[in-house]
Amino acid sequence: MSGTEKALTPKLVKKLWLAFIALVMLMGVSYILITGYFANKHSQETTQRLNANVANHVIAEKFKDASPFLEDGSVNKPLFGDLMHDMMAVNQGIEVYLLDEEGSILYSVVLDHEAGAPQKNVSLAPIAEFIEGKGEKFVLGDDPINPEEQKIFSAAPFTADGKNGYIYIVLAGRQFQKVSDNLLGQYFARLGVGATILTMLFAALIGLLSIWFLTKNLRLITRKVRSFQDGDLSARIENPDKSDLSILANSFNEMADTIVGNMDKMQSVDLLRRELIANVSHDLRTPLAILKGYIETLQMKRDTLSEVEKQEYLQITHDNVDKLSNLINQLFEYSKLEAEQVTPVKEPFSITELSHDLIAKFKVLAEKKQIQLRLENPEENCMVFADVSLVERALQNLIENAIKYTDANGKVTLSLQKHEKSIAINISDTGTGIPVSEQPFIFDRYKQINESAKKPGHGLGLAIVKKIMDLHDTTITVLSKPSEGSSFIFNLPTYQV
Same domain, yes or no, for 268 and 301? Predict the structure, then answer.
């Protein structure tokens, strides 16, 4: 792993290492404990199986020539002393107990030398289970010396001098337990050291391979992020859906595309802003120059100019002031729309009544240019749900634009067509039309239709209309052929009562 890759995700790699080592160590400890437990059980079962007939052997060999009881009915302690001596010579871990038929301990060499009060009874249930299984079943019985523990044993019933009882032999007595505990401790120590070494080796090997494999895709994503950060805007994660971290990979690619798209948009906006400033500066300069020229003329020749000339100069000055005011208003209106500072207040209103008002408003201007301005609408009243002031502004711009580019004796028509869920609004004219090459750009900021015609205007009217349509989640369509006129069509939702 290179230095760059090491620096990519140091905290994550460390956490993975610690988690993996802890998991492997836990597995190692669990393995040692489980192995020790079952090894001890195996040893106990083996010992019990090998010595299952010891109790029967004691009865057969020792009780055939001598009774376990004396003539007075007491226990034959010398017999049991010899018995323990002989048996301990073979196995020092054995403890022999004489039980009556109720399980009470009648005698044991071990208990006979113990201080304190020993347990007086041994549970007969394990003994009965052991005898029934003929010593082939693993059974644990009571330990008379340590009542809390269970030990492996051998047991057999006997009848002597009219008395019934059991010989109960603990196969893992105190001596056996001491040796077993010592050996088991050494076994666990050796097993623990060996298992720890193996665990660490396996943890290092498997951990290295696992972490390398698990962080492979993460390292790839990190490298791509670093490349993108360093300026490589084309850096993307290939085949993100096949990655182990597909959600992260897809999120990075989407984020990168969004950032690049925003950068392109910002560059485009910046370019358009510079063009807008240049064009606006030009339009501002023209009326300002005219204003300045006529005002200076009035100042210098006020005594020689006739009243008619003065009125003419003042009217020209007034018209250019209006042009400046309209331009400034359009710029202010468009800047608010583009900055998304305008929120439409939608309400039901009659588009029919609004259309009548607009036709009446522009009637004088149309007649002045000898243009026929008319309204085509259904007999019934058409109600729409939209922002009335914004829709009025859009219709004003479209009607004004249609009149501007229509010659004398032409027609401008505002028509309404009712559909099931919307009202189609169409502003058409018989003007000069729009060249096909210019139609995709007519809604751009400061794009004047048919610049060769040199019509008066500020190039922001259609751009404002487009923004208003966007606020209403609708589109505006233009149908136009050069020398045949143009139609601007958009839809507004019908108000459902």
Answer: yes
What digits encode the pLDDT tens for the residues 184-217?
566 666 666 666 677 667 767 776 776 666 666 7
* pLDDT tens digits, one per residue of 13-43: 677 667 777 777 777 777 777 777 777 788 7
DSSP 381: P
pTM of the shown model: 0.47
For the chain, counts of helices (H) and of strands (E): 13, 12
Q: What are phi and psi of 250, to 5 degrees?
A: -65, -40
Does 349 lie in the same domain as 487? Answer: yes
The DSSP annotation for 33-85 comes to HHHHHHHHHHHHHHHHHHTTTHHHHHHHHHTTTS-SB-TTS-B-HHHHHHHHH
8 Å CB contact between 438 and 429: no
Count other Cβ atoms within 10 Å, centred on residue 493. Answer: 15
How many domains does the chain divide into? 4
Query: 352 and 489 share a domain?
Result: yes
The boundaries of the domain holding residue 194 are 3-41+181-214
Domain of 122, CATH number, reads 3.30.450
Chain centre distance of CA 47: 60
Sequence letter at residue 461: G
Q: What pLDDT was estimated at residue 305?
A: 82
d(C-alpha 138, C-alpha 188), whole Å = 24
